[in-house]
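step: validate -> pass
step: tokenize input -> pass
step: predict -> running
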Amino acid sequence: MGRRRHKNNGVWFGYGSPESLTWNEKVDLVEARKDFGDRYISLLGKVTRINRFVYPLLWYPGTVLAAPDCVLVRLERAVFRFLWSGKTELVRRKVVYQDPRQGGLGLVHFPSKLRFLLTKCVFSAVDSQMPFAYFVRYWGGL
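step: predict -> pass
step: emit ->
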């Protein structure tokens, strides 16, 4: 019997590394979407576009599958290539990720958010009184 894969809500499940298949599809989608309507947009406009239209494509798969490091690097390169229009980065990435009230641009640090989304179910299991929560706490050693 061959390897079986099933796609549900845009996420591949099954054998044969479906997580890399899912994430590569998402990266291809981000790379295709990042240039839509690329007119003369301010830096803050580009940050808003990334936070509102590009990153939401990653949130749902991020709750189900861990993103490999190679995918995170590829996504970050694509985002910063769009942000700086392929030119030299004029501001450190650390500053770009900071809150605007602290002098940053407010770009969401998506590797951190993806890690949080993946572990969010563990936090809910710790506080929940549902039957599944007892199972998670027992087998997870919480």
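step: describe -> The chain has seven helices and two strands.
step: cleanup -> pass
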